[in-house]
Design goal:
Blueprint (H helix, E strand, L loop, with lengths): L12 E4 L2 E4 H5 L3 E7 L5 H12 L1 H6 L2 E7 L3 H15 L7 E3 L4 H5 L21 E6 L5 E7 L7 H16 L2 E2 L10 E3 L5 H7 L4 E4 L2 E4 L4
Parallel strand pairs: 3-4, 4-5
Antiparallel strand pairs: 1-2, 3-6, 6-7, 8-9, 9-11, 10-11
Length: about 220
């Protein structure tokens, strides 16, 4: 089954650095970011996990849980976390899924089919850098896929969460390069007359493009 925006995030059970989880129970009533890494003790992954750990306060402000995945076992994960903390001067406190058998990677279609060198000693593919943003209803709201060679921009992932959460609360969308606090677009389903009732400072650029101040 192909995973698409609007799909229910597949549930699974897994071992993590914080103990066993059932994924839907882990999500609970939070937004959740599930993100994969090719392998432990690799350079790009070490920088990425350090950034995510450093952003812990930002995730909490947005009611977001983060959970990583790497195609290694728990023992390697625990040793790798020591390196991540040392290199990035952080304290990594979110779980990392142990997916040496690639069950979760396969379920979420994370395996690398592009880079023939991104494999383990047995020739089994590692993952690419997948990102899933999942809302409290367990619905997939964003899917991003980066090659193993390119580290992710987690400021962009924060930006998307801000946009999704704002759009869920108000009848708005966000323009290109939008950042929290910038003007937003009034949703096309809202008439201009209704827009003037719902929002302050409505600016009509085109009948289909109306801007207003961000609700937050």
């Amino acid at each position: 089954m192909s995973l698409r925006l609007g799909s229910t995030a597949p549930d699974f059970e897994a071992q993590t650095t914080k103990g066993p989880i059932k994924f839907h129970e882990f999500i609970g009533d939070k937004w959740t970011i599930l993100f994969s890494h090719p392998a432990d003790f690799t350079p790009v992954c070490t920088t990425e996990l350090g950034v995510v750990a450093a952003l812990q306060d930002e995730w909490e402000k947005r009611n977001v849980k983060v959970i990583g995945l790497s195609a290694n076992g728990l023992d390697d994960h625990q040793k790798w976390i020591e390196d991540i903390n040392e290199v990035n001067s952080v304290t990594l406190d979110f779980p990392i899924i142990a997916d040496a058998d690639r069950k979760v990677s396969t379920l979420y279609d994370m395996l690398d089919h592009q880079d023939a060198t991104n494999v383990d000693a047995k020739g089994i593919p590692f993952t690419v850098r997948s990102v899933f943003i999942i809302d409290p209803k367990k619905t997939i709201r964003l899917i991003l896929t980066y090659p193993a060679s390119t580290g992710r921009n987690f400021d962009e992932i924060l930006r998307v969460i801000d946009s999704l959460q704002l759009g869920d609360q108000h009848r708005i969308t966000t323009p290109a390069n939008w950042k929290k606090g910038d003007d937003v677009i009034i949703h096309p389903s809202v008439s201009t007359a209704e827009a003037h009732e719902l929002f302050k400072n409505v600016r009509v650029i085109k009948p289909y493009l109306r801007l207003t101040k961000s609700p937050f």
